[in-house]
Structure formats: C-alpha cells, structure tokens
Design goal:
The protein is 38% helix and 16% strand. The protein has 443 residues and is of the alpha/beta class. The chain binds pyridoxal-5'-phosphate.
Length: 443
C-alpha cells in the first residue's frame, strides 16, 4: 500500500474528484497537523473519517467500521445520539459560551445537580474544567491549597502508584508512570512524586501482603510530607490497562487518613459506568476526597471535565492565604458542553447502561477467552465494558490497524495492548465482530 492509507483501486464508490480532494487533504494533514503522540516527520498513516453514527465510524473511502474504542472512553452512547445532538442544537440557539466569572447559567446548574445526585453525598463542590488533564491539575492544586489552609506547609509532596496515567500537563505528567510516562524527557522541571509499586491485589481478592508492606513503607518515609495521593481506581488505563482490587483502595484510604493525605481518584476513564458500576469507587467501601471526571462526561460530544471535592477540602482551600481557589480557565463551565453533558447524564439516569455493560462484560469474557490459547498472547482480562488482550511483544500498530480496518473494525492498540471499550449501545453481533477481529489479528 502507498504512503496514503487510501487506495484508488479499492474505492470504486468514490468519484475521481472526491478521491483527489481527499488525497490532497491527507497530504495536508501529513504535512501540517500533529496527531496524538506522533512524529510529523515520520507519521503513521491516518484514516479519513466522513461521519460517525451509533457504533459506526464511516471512512471517506466508504468503509463502515464498528468502533471498539468509544473515541478513547468517551462516546458511551454511540456517535450522534439524537438526545445529545438535540441538546447541543438547542443550546447553540441560546448561547454557546459566556464567561463564568461573575456569571452563571442553567446548563451549569442543571449539570451540577445531576453530578451531585449520582455521586457520593460527601462530594459536594464541583469545578468545571475543560479537559481531563486540567481537572487533574485542579485536583492537585486543591489538595495543595487545602494543606496550606490547614497550616501544613511541610505537606507539599505528591504520591501515586506506578503504571498510572493522569494526563499530559506538567503536574499530571509528574504522577504518570515514571518509566513509560514522560519523566525522562522533562526530569528537570517535573515536580517529584513518590511511587508505590504497581498493586498486585487481585480484583476480587484480599489485600496482597506485599501491597500492604509497600504502602506502610512508603508512608513511613514520606507520609508526613505528602499532600495528596492520586490513583485511577480499579483500572489503570493508558498506563497499561491493568486491573486491581478494591481492598487495595481501602488500604490507601486508611493510610491517607492516618497521615492526613488528600485522596484523589482519577475516574476520567473509569467513570460513568465503564467498569460495571457508575463510578469505579463504588466497587469499594471508600470514597475519595477529590474525584476527577472527564472523557464520557459529555458522551463524547465535546470536551469537558469536572473535579468534585468534599466540603472539608473546599473549606481548607478557602482558608489558605489566597482565600480563593487559584484556578479559572477561560472556557470554564462552557454552556454548550454543560448542556450536552447534562443530556448525557440524563441518558445514564435511565439505568439502561447497567444491563448493557453487564451484557458486554459477559460476552467479552466468553469471546476473548480463546485468545488465551494463542502463542502471541500473554494475558486476557475483562472488567465491565473493557476487554484487554496483552501480547507477548509490541504490536506493529500500522500493520495491525490496516488489518482491523479491512476486517471492518476500529481498534487502536498501543505497545503490547490490544484493547476495546466499545459504546454501551453495541449489539452482540457487532461486539462479536470486534472480538473476532482481535482473534484473527493475533492468530
Ligand atoms: C485521558 C485521561 C486523562 C487526561 O484527560 P484529557 O482529557 O486527555 O486531558 C487523565 N486521566 C485519565 C485516567 C485518563 O484516562
């Protein structure tokens, strides 16, 4: 195949003019547009998308792909859900944006009410940020200002576990995995964090003794100077797609209480039903002091994130020298995004997601199991609407992607991870297309 991902011979359904325009656009893209984590001098091929609807992504070249990625955890109700599109259009006719300093609006208050109704009563204050990484920055800043408000100036450190991913901004990067994250590149300017080993406590098991020991040891050394501990509960996403048990989170909660450390759960990936509970912390007996939400918050329609915190955290923040929380992005509480998010949470409130996610989990367990027998496969794991096949060696992304597209599916692996988290509305037959394509690609 040429360095373009489209091939005229395969695409008789395109008119010649359309084909040439698309080819020129792809070349422009290669020459001028950055994509996530890519080289612009040696870019991987990109597939041009014409439209997306329900569980399907349609390419300019005519292929109709079953989406296995939910555009990175976000489009849980499928693309162009009529209720979300309707909410966006209605809001566009009123106002797409207005500043949040000194002004407020219906979409923000309606969204806030829904968020409080679906999360634990102790989480009572909401900061509406514009992306997941920013909501993590906000959470870390809240924790630091809270400690200052309490007069705990010695508490300025951050703690996390290895294998995590919390975003691409600087403080967020500092708590990403120190090996596969970006620490090496930016060592000199990143805040230094303390790392617990990757948890080995199994999903349904008791706290592993080595995990207990590691928590005790790190807390003994750094507990006194640590302001906040941040983790992705139950599922570590982009840092390796690993699962671990509720008992570990309960042990962290206890250790944080003992040492006066703010516990932050980053549920940007796991929130809104993905793990089988509305929020992953609901698999546990504990609640964080601060909760980060993003990705699926708007059902994948727009960018929006939220950082929720307890009254105690908010009071500490406002007792700090500044007297206010020192953050306020231009597009804070963007009405268009809030209106769509409110509509998305409305869809979740019907409760339909729970049956859908449970059915996806059951089917993934059955249909990914045969991958265990493949020589190329190291592990298969499933939780909620997340299916992971870990391979023995890194996959050739460009090659496997080509194969997936010709097999009618959109799956985007990284490293040794071929994983899917489809929209909840996927049918059993469509889900089988995804699992079948993974088995064939790894055979
Ligand atoms: C994606 C992600 C982020 C970053 O969110 P962005 O919207 O990409 O900035 C942070 N934490 C977790 C767990 C994520 O999955």
């Amino acid at each position: 195949m040429s360095r373009y991902t489209v091939n005229a011979d395969q695409n008789q359904n395109l008119t010649n003019g359309h084909f040439l325009t698309m080819k020129a656009d792809l070349q422009f893209d290669r020459d001028h547009l950055w994509h996530p984590y890519t080289s612009t001098t040696h870019p991987l091929p990109c597939y041009p998308v014409a439209r997306a609807e329900g569980v399907h992504i349609e390419l300019e070249t005519g292929e109709r792909l079953v989406d296995g990625m939910s555009s990175w955890w976000s489009t849980i109700h499928g693309y162009q859900h009529p209720k979300l599109t309707e909410a966006a259009k209605a809001q566009l006719d009123r106002m797409s944006h207005v500043m949040f300093g000194g002004l407020t609006h219906g979409p923000a208050t309606a969204l806030g009410k829904r968020l409080l109704a679906m999360t634990h009563p102790s989480l009572n204050k909401i900061f509406l940020a514009d992306s997941g990484s920013v909501s993590v920055e906000v959470a870390l800043k809240m924790a630091l200002q809270y400690q200052q408000g309490l007069g705990h100036r010695h508490k300025s450190g951050l703690m996390t576990i290895r294998g995590g991913y919390h975003g691409d901004t600087f403080a967020a990067m500092s708590v990403c995995d120190p090996v596969n994250g970006m620490h090496g590149l930016f060592r000199d300017i990143l805040p230094k964090a303390q790392f617990l080993p990757r948890p080995v406590t199994p999903l349904d098991g008791p706290l592993a003794p080595e995990d207990a020991k590691a928590i005790d040891a790190l807390m003994a050394r750094h507990g006194e100077t640590t302001a906040a501990l941040i983790v992705e509960p139950m599922v570590q996403g982009a840092g390796g797609m690993r699962f671990y048990g509720a008992a570990y989170l309960e042990a962290l909660r206890e250790a944080c209480d003992r040492h006066g450390i703010v516990l932050i759960f980053d549920e940007i990936a796991t929130g809104f039903g993905r793990t089988g509970k509305l929020f992953a912390y609901q698999h546990t007996k504990v609640v964080p002091d601060i909760l980060c939400l993003g990705k699926a918050l708007t059902g994948g329609t727009m960018t929006l994130a939220a950082t929720l915190c307890s009254d105690a955290i908010a009071e500490g923040v406002c007792a700090s020298d500044a007297g206010v929380f020192m953050h306020g992005p231009t597009f804070m509480g963007n009405p268009l995004a809030c209106a769509v998010a409110e509509a998305s949470l409305g869809l979740l409130e019907t409760g339909e997601w729970a049956g859908q996610v449970a059915a996806i989990e059951a089917q993934l367990k059955v249909e990914l199991a045969p991958c265990r027998a493949l020589a190329s496969v190291a592990d298969v794991r499933v939780l909620g609407a997340i299916g992971v096949v870990e391979t023995q060696s890194p996959v050739d992304v460009a090659a496997i992607q080509r194969q997936f597209v010709s097999d009618g599916v959109w799956i985007r692996p990284f490293g040794r991870l071929v994983y899917i988290m489809p929209p909840y509305i996927i049918t059993p037959a469509e889900l089988s297309q995804l699992t079948g394509a993974i088995f064939r690609a790894l055979s």
